[in-house]
Structure formats: C-alpha cells, structure tokens
Amino acid sequence: MNALNTISPLDGRYANSVKELSEYFSESALMRYRLKVEVEYLIALGKEKGIKGFPPFTQDEQVRLRKIYENFNSGGAEKVKEIETTTNHDVKAVEYYLQSKVKKTLHPWIHFALTSEDVNNLSYTLMWKDGLKHVYLPSLQSLNKELKKLARRYKNSSMLALTHGQPATPTTFGKELAVFCARLDRQIDQIKSHSLLGKFGGATGTWSAHMVAYPKVNWTRFASMFIKSLGLEPNLITTQIEHHDSLAESFHQVVRVNSILTDLCRDMWAYISRGILGQKKVAGEVGSSTMPHKINPIQFENAEGNMGVANALLNHLATKLPISRMQRDLTDSTTLRNQGVALGHSYLALKNIQKGLGRITINKVQMENELDDHWEVLAEAIQTILRKNGKQDAYEQLKELTRGQSINVESMAEFVSRLKISDEDKRILLNLTPESYIGLAKKLVDSL
C-alpha cells in the first residue's frame, strides 16, 4: 500500500519510525501467532498419554510443524485472507490453512475441543508480551540510559527552580533529569517483572468438550503446562474469555511511563522557552514557514501528542477489556486489535524524545543570569539558620524582606551582616549564592 494513501499516520507518515512493531502487531503477525498456538497445541496433544490413538510426534515431525508458523510470510497471510472470504471467521480460516499444510489424519486434532478465544487470548497476549520485550522496552531503556548520561553530565549545572511558576530554591539541570530517571527505573522494573495470564478452558471455561472426549485426562494440568510453555501464567477460572486483568495492568504500566515522559517533555519545552536550554541547528531544517529564526522543540511536542493518543487508547483498553457480558461478548475482539496502535504511538514518542534530547544544549549564561536576578531564593536558607539560632520570628523577618521585593547581592549581604547569629553561620550565609545553594543535588545524581 502506498504510504500516502493510508488512513493511520502510523502506517503512513510514521511508518518507517514504527516498522519494527509490524512483526508483532500486523494482521499477518496475528495470523502467525494463531498458527503458533494451534501448532503447539497439536504437538502438546500428541504428548498427552491419556489421549489414545494419537501418538506423539517425532522430533523431525515437530520441527516440520513448527516451520509452518516460523516461516509464515505474506504469501501465507494472503491465503488465510482468501479462506476468510468464505468462512467469514478469522480463526477458522487459520485452522483451515493449517489443515492444508498437514496430512489429513491430523485434521480432526487441529483446534480439538477449543473455542476461538482459547487461541485468540494467547495470541494477543503473546503479541503484546513480545512487542514489549523486543521493541518497546529496549527503546525505553535506551532513552533512560541517555537521560542518565545527561544527568551526570549536567549534575553541576545550577539553575533556578520554579515552583508554582515562581522562583524557588535552586537545583541543577542534572538533578532534575535524575528525577525522571528514578521514576522510569521503577516502571521499567514493573514492566519486566509483570506476569501476563492466559486461558485454555474451552467454550465457557469448563473444559466440557475435553471432558466428554477424554474424561480421564487431567485437563487443567494439561492447560497449565501448555500455557506455561508459551511463557504465560495459567488463568484456570474464567468464562469463555481470559478476563484481561493482567493485560490491563500492563497497559496501565505503559500509561504511567507515558505520563512520566509527558511531564519530561513539558519541562524540556519550558526550559527551552526560558532560554536556559538551546537546540542544535540542523542543516536545511525549517522551524517556521514565516519566521526564519525559529528552532521549535518539535520532537518534545510530537512526543507529547503521541503519548496523549496512546494513553487515550490504553486507558480505554484497560477499562473496557475486563468487562464482558456474562460468559462473553465480542466487544473485546475489535478493541484488542488496537493494542498495537497504542504501543505504536508510545514507541514513536520514545524515538522523538530521544531525538529531542540529542539536540539540546546548555545555555550556561542564561542559567547564571536567572540565578543572579533572584537572590531572594536564599531567604529559605537564611530563615533556616535563624531558626537554628532560636529566632522565633525567622520566617516573618525574611517574608518582610523578600516577599514581592527585588533583592540583589548587596541588599542580601547587608541584611545578613546585621543578623545576631554566630560568626560561623554568618560566614556561611555571606558566602552563599543562588548558584551554590543546591544542597545534595550532585550526590543525588551520583546515586543513580
């Protein structure tokens, strides 16, 4: 398809940026995952000793069966779609395609006693699991690694902090980046350790068809072993559907990452707007169609927009999917198809943030100017020293001096010199500047 004619920007404008996800979330990928579940189930049935008349496959036979999904390509996907034009059922089309690849004696055992949701829930969950593991998580870790590198590089770069948009106790640019690193570390750990569930219990989660055919087989044990063999945790008490709670939890983990990174993007945007950060020029790039001077923070803006779209989808998925009328309805089926779209927008945001970080430069002069214009931020330090010396009206004294007033180095020094405190405390305050009033900022970065 011509990228200029696609409806989704992920398949059009941004196709090259998210192409890695196609292997996990395309229609062809869904077919391949369904084939994997069907083939692995067929192999597992052969291993079950309680099923008489169905001998286990040899190692060579297993290899040949697995090649059906391992070598699945666009030609195979087109054949499945052709079958679906007749069946009007996507899972049944995969079943018939698999039948065409094996000898007829195996046909009765393909999809044996299963409902489509047994195949679908495992397939969609494996798609999400693999997409996270192989594409999204490495990109997120790479971004966090870059943030940590910048945090260490700029741990000594003092800057004015703003709380409520007003001048506040100074910090360092590196320490502010370290805050995001620590937040992301926690979310990355949760994503990596999270368990995703799968079900394999038949039409209403009772293994009824299985039990009618082979009542002596321990089907819950069989299902548990099979689900674990795919890398998922068994969910044995379900309706027809796996109730998607673990998927919802995973979606919310990505939502939290996007929220943290939206916070980062807005801060970076504000730092650039204040002029304490600059951006490297790119030859040939245009910032505005009418204002030649502009270098806009477009990477951070693009990322923020994409994370907003992603979170809208992920929050809907997470709140809708666990809800199903009685033993099942079909609303989850069409909804789940959008999990790749949600991760695509999240992944695109990661790439844009990394590009944006690669362009930033520190404007040391502007940082120093801002600090030098706001000596009133030392009021906190002075009133804390006064409290240490037992002054009951310490806060009020500094409020009278600084609130709404323009304070500079001379007026601050004059005020401190009149204070009745120890010579050591007075020396500390007279040597203190907005640039040096950064507490443990450097050490906090080193603790990453």
Structure description:
The protein starts with 14 loop residues before the first helix and ends with a helix. It is built from 20 helices and 6 strands. The protein folds into 3 domains: 110 residues, Fumarase C, Chain B, domain 1 (Orthogonal Bundle); 248 residues, Up-down Bundle (Fumarase C, Chain A, domain 2); 73 residues, Ribonucleotide Reductase Protein R1, domain 1 (Orthogonal Bundle). The relative contact order is 0.11. Strand 1 and strand 2 form a beta hairpin. Helices cover 61% and strands 5% of the residues. It is elongated. By secondary structure, the chain is mainly alpha-helical. A two-stranded antiparallel sheet has the order 1-2. It has a two-stranded parallel ribbon with strand order 3-4. Helix 3 packs across helix 6 and helix 11 packs parallel to helix 14.
CATH level 1 class label of the largest domain: Mainly Alpha
Q: Show unreliable segments.
A: none
Quick one: how many beta strands?
A: 6
The overall average pLDDT, rounded, is 94
The number of helical segments is 20
Going by helix content, strand content and strand pairing, the class is mainly alpha
SSE succession: HHHHHHHEEHEHHEHEHHHEHHHHHH
Tell me which oligomeric state these chains represent: single chain
Which properties best describe this structure?
448 residues, mainly alpha, Fumarase C, Chain B, domain 1, Fumarase C, Chain A, domain 2, Ribonucleotide Reductase Protein R1, domain 1, 3 domains, two-stranded antiparallel ribbon, two-stranded parallel sheet, 20 helices, 6 strands, 5% strand, elongated
